[in-house]
Amino acid sequence: MTGVMAAGEVWVVDDDHSIRWVLERALVRAGFGVRTFAQVDEVLAALAVSEPAVLVSDIRMPGASGIELLYQVRQRRPALPVIIMTAYSDLDSAVSAFQAGAFEYLPKPFDLMQAVALVQRAAQGRAEAARGAASARPSGRGAGAGAHSDPERGAKAQATQFPQAGARMSDAGLLGQAPAMQAVYRAIGRLARSDATVLLTGQSGTGKERVARALHQHSVRAERPFVAINMAAIPRDLMESELFGHERGAFTGAQTLRRGRFEQAEGGTLFLDEIGDMPAEMQTRLLRVLSEGHFYRVGGNQPVKSRVRVIAATHQDLEARVAQGLFRDDLFHRLNVIRLRLPPLAERVEDIPLLAEHFLAESAASLGVEPKQLGADALRVLCAFDWPGNVRQLENVCQWLTVMTAAHVVTMADLPPEMLPSRGAAAATRPVTEAASVAAPQASGTPPVPTDAADQEEGHRQSADPEGWCEVLVKLARQQLEDPQARDLLTPLQASFERTLIEAALEATGGHRGEAARRLGLGRNTLARKIRDLGID
């Protein structure tokens, strides 16, 4: 392939002019040359004659997507680092990007300084790799020919290395766009092509099994079994048989051969939940399996090959348990190859509306009823709650609301009594961006049924107008309506309210229209039209 690399040049691909403009200015200030493109076909044409030091591309654009561009780049310019940007920051996007060979995955909205630093890191790595290749290249005519001597063969190799994203993807139930969850998605994406042992840590209810399933579903073992076992739920005297199986006649009652969880997960993934509760003698046996790659059934004398990937999880501090002599140090290091911490719900408050909507729809579907909708006052309480039981507790609350709430729209008074700010010592509800400590329902159970009508009435009074803005609107409307000459007031008043709200959203997001649209619950095109129609600068 002909063409040369433009040293220090960055190509930015995005159908949004404002994103191209902002990135170009920031990168130019950092000393890069910048070339921008609005469509994938323009980039492919340019790659035929030259290439940048780094390529930054959006993932969703009209026509070909950023992922399709990434596959083309991997075939044509395999050394070119590609950074994928996306406003649709979900698990599938992250996994697709890394499976296709992305250098990094950058969710929108992003911090410009961090974006520039990421480009600098990619460019530096590219330059160091080029210097290393040059020093190692043998002299002679054939030097370097392997990279481009057989384009068709190279394309086939790339297609094998990077399987088509989405071909085996199934929903593992992971939701969220908070930065803490983006780190989880990024890790799952990077681990998609790895077979390394993973240790998941985090509080109870944070979704460790769901992450384990996602790791399995996005791995090369996806077509093989996923087998989960909770160490805390298995009686000590049955644990060995549960894990490794037993031969016929191994003990009283063993009438037939039984395959344990390691054999049931053959070729797939074995998820060992609550590994910190494993007894000492079983820790020794597990360590031997991980070290030697085989095990013996109870009562057996023939080794059984272990061909599973192990993912372990715990809510406990394993380092502390090692220091206390309760967990083997060597087993800890065997399991702690890659550690992935799952954030508590209090660290991802911005995900609560999305999660609540999902759980309300899910519980409604199971009962065959219409999904409930959360009113603003109820959502404010949910976002300010501590959630000691994390996502699992939120799911329980949504199931309770589906059954116990009579109205279609859930108000603050419909929430479990223990969640209402008026019921606890920490009565003040903090802003949505904070994680408040208010009286909590039982973290592991279903909230009790409210029976005190006076409490519900009190909740209604407190939630009627928490910020006072309704009162202002009513006063303004009355002033306008008192004029006997008033006509057609609804349209101008509605426009005034929309203008104020949109201007506030743009100010809060630093002018980022995509993020402002998301917070307002509008499509980007709808927001752009309203900005134009309302004359907002």
TrEMBL record:
SMART domains: AAA, REC. The keyword Transcription applies. The keyword Ion transport does not apply. It is found in: Cytoplasm. Its main location: cytoplasm. Gene3D superfamilies: 1.10.8.60, 3.40.50.2300, Homeodomain-like, P-loop containing nucleotide triphosphate hydrolases. GO terms for molecular function: ATP binding; sequence-specific DNA binding. Keywords: Activator, ATP-binding, Cytoplasm, DNA-binding, Nitrogen fixation, Nucleotide-binding, Phosphoprotein, Repressor, Transcription, Transcription regulation, Two-component regulatory system. Residues 174-403 form the Sigma-54 factor interaction domain. This is DNA-binding transcriptional regulator NtrC.
